[in-house]
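stuck on this chain:
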Amino acid sequence: GGADERRTGASRGGVDEADEMDEQLLQEFVEEGDDVEERRRPRAGSRAEAAADGPVLTSATINLIKFIGKYIEMMSILQPIAFDVFVEVTHLFEYYVYAMILFFGHFEEPEEVEEEESMRSKLAQSFLRGFKQVDTPEKEEVNKDDPKYWLKLIPDAPLRRLLLRIEDTLIVKADETENKGFALPRPHLSDMVELGTKEGMYGIPERAVAMESLVFLVDTLQQVKPHIQRMIPKQHVEQLERFFQESVLPARDMRRYVYLSSAIRLVDLSKVPKEIEKAKWDIKELGVDTSPYVDSMTREMKTFVKRMEVVAQKTVIPAHELDAMKRRVVELAMEKILEGFGRVTKCSPEGRTQMSLDSQSFKSALERLTEMRPLPKAQLVENYIKAFYSQEDELLRWILDYQEQYTVQQLMGLVSVTAPMMPKKAREQLWSTVEAVCANKKRGEQQ
């Protein structure tokens, strides 16, 4: 008992309360604009190094593993009801998984992007009005705090299906009258746990211990699977396999989802598309400096790199997951640039050259900051800028070839800039093609 408790994330040696973030590191985490060359490197004795000595677990995970061990012991003693006991193990595991996503995987949504119609030329506006009448259903009122709403937004399909199934079958709601059979109330996280503040690193240390505990539990179940399989009747082996395929394996992917969702909270690029949209792109002469948004993005990415170094030092997140977090934020930066370029309604050849110079300047700065080559999604930005130079037939082929890699807004933005300079027949053919492509993409998004 005592030995187990000493291995929890709250009390094990090397990762104890005395190792909480000191004031200097906290200041480094929240301040912006410091020289990236002077940023601090992880020191010896950090949480990540301590985690290498053994698993960092929550006491809840240790208790759950103990309970599962007792259930497995019951299965070996009570062979006639071994499968019934195993079913209760699945309930324990799935309820734990549901609590983990509810406590540590729920993030506030970013502010909604303003209506695209305000960012379009008259030609694009005309098309979008007709497009929306046909394809866009009326918006339904939704409760964004309802788990069923935000669980549907999880991009990982197997994980999303698992969590929605648990929500529907295992969780009893306060206003529910229908008898589900075995069901449990929705768990609640203590109000004392604060996960949303910058000073608390947006709860990343707590989320990390929770996710590493979950992964340890999943790996433990994988190890005892052969033992469980020997104890249950052969006619139920298929159900055992289904549990591991549809519940255990997808649960492991929650770690990556939570870490990537945490990473994008460490950087604020929300204003970038608007800054790009407001910039003057129908210029006659090329300037000597990059656009202001490049400087603001570079400063923000410097701050992000510093914050990630603090995260690496003060959490138990594995190195490969830290790399994935950095990669996701670089992708986000490229996505924001593309979103901004997709809002541009007037652009001269000199403006396109300015876009290219801006892109190359930011790419060079990002390579120095992240030591990442090639930069993810940088090629998408480059290809998009090059498309502005395409002739009518080339642009048609480009849209058909790259339609899956760009959003409806980006395709519409590209066409709204280039179409007015084309002959009428070519312009009509281009709009017809992009209308079909966008309508198809829109239907796919709604399914």
